[in-house]
Amino acid sequence: MSHENNQTIYRTTSARTGKMMIIMLGICIVGGVIFFSMWDYWISSPAPVVAMMAGKADDLAPAAQTGKTITQDLSFIESSDFRTLAFNALPGEPDNNPTINMNVGDKVVFNVVNDGKSFHALGVTKDTEGFGGIVPGSEVGSASKPLKPGEDGTAEFIAGEEGTYYYICTVPGHREQGMVGEIIVGPSQGGGSKAAAPPTGVSHDFTLDFVESSDFRTLAFNALPGEDGHNPEIKVNSGDEVTITANNLGKSFHAFGVVSNPEDFNSIVMNSAIAAASNPLKPGEGGSVTFTAGAPGTYYYICTVPGHALQGMQGSFIVE
């Protein structure tokens, strides 16, 4: 005679349950430590709606350099309790958040280093509060990709109009904690230089080829000296849209940019760079850039690889 055994059998003992609870608790503790140790990083990445509310970048035609260049070294620093943030020195100490005085057409080059223990980023804005309205080209890092402790970077700001600007840490909340300095922009000292015109709606397309002599001693655009099409002059109106296509037809490395000084390959204006000396176009490669012509004046297009402009890779870029 058979009997069915309907007794319930438990396969998890209280000891095993206890071990599982300990493992889960350990995972939660480790995760919490990692999360809160990176707290400054999490708050430095605002949600898209927050970024939209912060304001948009200045969309005026890029300013052109017509004056002097100022170099400003800035370091992000923090108080021991992290409640006070500043540039170069804490409040009450010499060189705290230094004020920069410049004129329309001057350029300031920021050399920035993060000497703190949290995440930071730099930008220039006309907004009197918040972290929006950042002028294009003035950024070192960003709120979503900040400088980590010990990292550094370089940025430029060219004053396009008179008034007060601010260099700030663009990580949300850091400006309010003290990371903000003034940039006082006075009138142009360039003998009545004109400001950039608003966009005209007129577009131009130019093609420039990097070429070299057989002995590599002479460099040029489109054709060698004495040949038709050698370093052609480009002439546009302020506010026009300009598209440059550059092709490397040589055997060495090249890069392109419109500059204010042909002897300074770092004086690029109007966001006109194609590649760079640190990441140039290889033989056979090409690239293009579209930008708005800035303030009237005489500029130059060059190969921005050091020494190449002096070997002949430069032409006139005239804005009327």
TrEMBL record:
List the Pfam families: Copper-bind, Cu-oxidase_3
List, for all copies, the residue spans of the domain called Blue (type 1) copper.
Answer: 232-320
> What is the protein named?
Multicopper oxidase domain-containing protein
Instruction: Give a GO molecular function annotation for the protein.
Output: copper ion binding
From the broadest rank down, the organism's phylogenetic lineage runs: Archaea, Nitrososphaerota, Nitrososphaeria, Nitrosopumilales, Nitrosopumilaceae
- Locate the Plastocyanin-like domain: which residues? 97-188
Residues that span the membrane, as ranges:
21-42
Q: Which PANTHER family match?
A: AURACYANIN-B, COPPER-RESISTANT CUPROPROTEIN COPI
The alphabetical list of record keywords is: Copper, Electron transport, Membrane, Metal-binding, Transmembrane, Transmembrane helix, Transport
